[in-house]
Amino acid sequence: MENKSNNTDSDVNAKWDACIDLTARRFVYSSLGGAFAGLLFFRSPVTRWASIAFGAGIGIGSAYTDCSRVFDASSSTSATLLAPRSSTEAPVPQAAEE
């Protein structure tokens, strides 16, 4: 019984670690995107800061959405939501040689 409790604790810890990592990356990348867009499109410092804040909000919001899906999903599907995809190509079936 102790092993099952330990498994669920490590599963929850892995989910939290993945969600914190996802949130940090999306916050930084969206803020940088907002900063770039602000430098490109706006002249006023106020609107540049607003575009950075808007980008940060988008990053945090998208990370929150994905993390809430992970915590609401069963443990078998949560690993597939956060795991990187190895390949998008389908395997090619081999023809039988005669």
Automatic annotation (TrEMBL):
InterPro entries: Mic10 (IPR007512). It is found in: Mitochondrion inner membrane. The lineage of its organism: Eukaryota, Viridiplantae, Streptophyta, Embryophyta, Tracheophyta. Its main location: mitochondrion. Belongs to the MICOS complex subunit Mic10 family. Keywords: Membrane, Mitochondrion, Mitochondrion inner membrane, Transmembrane, Transmembrane helix. It comes from the Eukaryota. The keyword Nucleotide-binding does not apply. The keyword Membrane applies. Component of the MICOS complex, a large protein complex of the mitochondrial inner membrane that plays crucial roles in the maintenance of crista junctions, inner membrane architecture, and formation of contact sites to the outer membrane. Pfam families: DUF543. This is MICOS complex subunit Mic10. It comes from Camelina sativa (False flax).
